[in-house]
Amino acid sequence: MKITIQDVAKKAEVSVATVSRVLNGNYPVKAETKEKVQKVIKELNFIPNIQARELTRQKSTAIGVVLPSINNMFFPEVVTSIETALKAKGYSLILCCSNNDREEEVRCINDLLARNVAGVIVLDPNTSNINSDFYKSIAKTVPIVFINGHASVENISSVSNDESIGAEIALKYLINNNHKNILFIRGENSASYDIKEKKYISMLTNSNHYHPSNVINIGKGNGSETVDNTIVSVTNFLTKNRKITAIFACNDLMAVGAINACKRLGLNVPEDISVIGFDNTELSKIVEPKLTTIDQNMSLLGENAAELLLEKITYNNEFSKKIILNNKLVIRETVNQQGD
Amino acid sequence: MKITIQDVAKKAEVSVATVSRVLNGNYPVKAETKEKVQKVIKELNFIPNIQARELTRQKSTAIGVVLPSINNMFFPEVVTSIETALKAKGYSLILCCSNNDREEEVRCINDLLARNVAGVIVLDPNTSNINSDFYKSIAKTVPIVFINGHASVENISSVSNDESIGAEIALKYLINNNHKNILFIRGENSASYDIKEKKYISMLTNSNHYHPSNVINIGKGNGSETVDNTIVSVTNFLTKNRKITAIFACNDLMAVGAINACKRLGLNVPEDISVIGFDNTELSKIVEPKLTTIDQNMSLLGENAAELLLEKITYNNEFSKKIILNNKLVIRETVNQQGD
DNA sequence: CTGAAAGCGCTTACAG
DNA sequence: CTGAAAGCGCTTACAG
């Protein structure tokens, strides 16, 4: 039922080779012939089959993107910028969601490879997959770029943020504003939380204000769960400990949870207590007061990942590069500039 | 460099036909042969090329999804449920973003067709594309499902919400709680806002409380822009008009903007003023107080769209169906139950 | 149970 | 400037 190049050739009374040439414009075709063929293409509403083209040309214009979840304020922004950058170069995106599951991630990649993608971008790759040989063997045959994957794997390019510096900037900002007793809020095991906690411990130890009990872990959860879990944990914490003047949250959702907890306890942010988040998701600009946070450069992550992948594709997967972006502080309304 | 079925056949000392049979398990193969082939497949890490398979089989296991933007609290949730439903049936998703642009939408669809998708799901299809003959002609050759597209086009299935009923439920809830003077907030031209405004006008006219000046349009914008624009408009409005006891917002972002404006003016929500949103995005569960809103059934929209598409694919694009979901009220914390 | 061969829709040397 | 033919990686009647 679908129109093929054969149908066009027949109707235009030329060979399929000629139709192919006018389609691709890569060989001389007599003007008259060209017009005739183009007319038929229009008439028949012919769309060339890219699958067949790619099979012949032995190259692909599809890119795989695997991400832990779409349903999150962080990933959609990154995906948007990947899509924009790649579409401009004629690539399409095949999306696969791993649901934070290690094996599903492997399945996604295998499916993408089977679909003959020219390369794949993985957001937040699973640590155990990185450490196993999975990525090492895959990376030999197809260009791979990690976003926020601490890629010790050779032959994989990556873009990430220096979250350690980001945490340092955030904590310095609090400390410079005279905050000494700072609550640290994190979630369950994640390399990213570990990095921030490490920085927190070293800085607070330096200032003689490190107390292990000022680190709380709100457990796991997504979206509004994170907020709710944080509200519970922070409420518990603050009813017992009022020495805290500032809160460092490992992401914006936790920061919003902390702010909400304060409100319920009748504490004003930032007058009574300051809060700083991490990520600079859209949410940080939506809540009231607007959240002071650390910018995770989401669109830069996406753009750079797209570029690195294109580079790998162009140079036959031969060179790898790591790009580390510096996080920067976004001052809005939730940190009291005088401290206490 | 890539391993093909040829390589496997050679190493296993069988024909490619036999390899294909053990791959697909659709023909009898001697146990011994099967094992030998499977062993080689493992050794060589062979992944069959789906593009080639689909070219031969003349069918596709890729589905196109086109959406106006990924960067939005509504679409990612819908896409997630589409992905989940479709992955379970062995399909993959090719994503294309139209950036709210009519022509880009057409380009997306054409690209997807060229990539030989088995069908396409369009979120919020552009009205002018629906009215032109574009979709009509496309729908003849490939299964198409609209989400929230008021599809008058024959041969296209669709899932949508009855937003008119949704608006009615929301307004009735306000009115039953004794709210009479209700502010209506909408954005720039969209069929969806028009439907809600129409309902608003008819219901408020009925109760003799319709005043055209109580309808405000905050212009266009996405994400935090919407919130900011709403804050400005509502602040302006409320400084001049304090008779309002409730606000109906056409989406959750506008509702949050309205709440933020109230806070800045020293008005408590819901004690001084009630706010109801629309959509039930994750945001409505994140803000404080939690937003009372109308559920847009985002995951149901996705699931149903996936099902309708699968149905069309199975039955050769021969049957179409429209599903209209009923919105329901989600009572949380922003509407004062006594009114005023 | 297995292999040889045709064919899916395209592109591209090759020959003219 | 144009056509015939090989080939991309697979599947599936057909024959044995």
* Measured distance between first and last alpha carbons of chain A: 75 Å
Low-pLDDT runs of 5+ residues of chain A are none
The overall average pLDDT of chain A, rounded, is 93
Largest interface: A-B, 56 and 56 residues
Q: Please give the number of β-strands of chain A.
A: 12
Quote the beta fraction of chain A: 15-25%
Main β-sheet of chain A, in a few words? 6 strands, parallel
Percent of residues in helices of chain A: 40-55%
Would you tell me the structural class of the helices and strands of chain A? alpha/beta
Question: What is the CA-atom radius of gyration of chain A, in angstroms?
Answer: 26 Å
* SSE series of chain A: HHHHEHEHEHHEEHEHEHEHEHEHEE
The protein's oligomeric status is homodimer
Keywords (chains A, B): DNA-binding, Transcription, Transcription regulation
Pfam family, one (chains A, B): LacI
Organism (chains A, B): Clostridium lentum
Protein name (chains A, B): LacI family DNA-binding transcriptional regulator
